[in-house]
Amino acid sequence: MNEFYDKLDELYAAGDLGAVEAFMRSTIDDTDENSAIRAGLYNELAGFYRGVSRFAESESVFKQSLGIFESIGMGATPEFATVLLNLAGLYRIMGDADKAIELFIDAKKKLEDAEASESYAYISVLNNLALAYQARLELVPALEYAGRALELMRAGGGGGHEIASSLNNLASIRFQLGELDAADTLISEALQIYDGMDEPDVHHAAALATKAAIMCRLGDYKGALQGFQQALGLTRRFFGENIEYAICRRNTSEVFELLGDVPSAIEELSDAVRIMEQIRGSDHPSVTDAKAKLAKLRDGARA
After folding, report:
1. Distance CA 167, CA 169 (A)
2. How far apart are CA 4 and CA 159, in angstroms?
């Protein structure tokens, strides 16, 4: 499997998403249908689909992975719980925080029952629970879970990218609480870690976006614009025009508007709407809201 992951990392680094999918599909085809290896590969493929916002395919493949694990008697293992938490992460990204929290808690219990409460998967559950509660604006439990995840990561000697991701989660919650100094300290530490890496990391873009949001709140619009644009470049490199890419373009539009550059704000938001509509459909609240904002900007430009 080491050769598989080395090749996968190489393809991701090259930014060839079509080759990534084809490689994973061909590898899956070469494995036994009812094996733990195939279930693990399905988990990787579903994670890829989630990253590029192909949500229906992601859900289907995650469930295929879970089905295999259950059929071979691994329904109570950390491997099963890991796929379950990844499926829950999909529901969180899709905006179903309630369903996500239900599955995260189920995964958390399975990992505790398997005596894996110090594993990376367990820390990931805590981080994801923090994000899900944050989405429901329940910031007290969100802060508690994010803080515990970072504590476990530091104590266990977690890798730099893992600590940086936890720092970003905690910074995002502090930002939402209005604690800008604390948020900035946390995200600055995360960005130092990312900047010191030999290769670009898939989570670097999220940290750049958090930093940009803080700078925008502090009135540093030019710095915020640069941060969001860097985040856009990394997101597109690893995932193409996914939902995070669209959200970042909407944020960039807002910064251009604050800078008084309405034509650029319209251009950014127009593209954000196009991508959001492709992924979420024209009736999704976030899409209708973005369209209303775009119409307002265009009306103002014509006035």
Report:
1. 5
2. 21
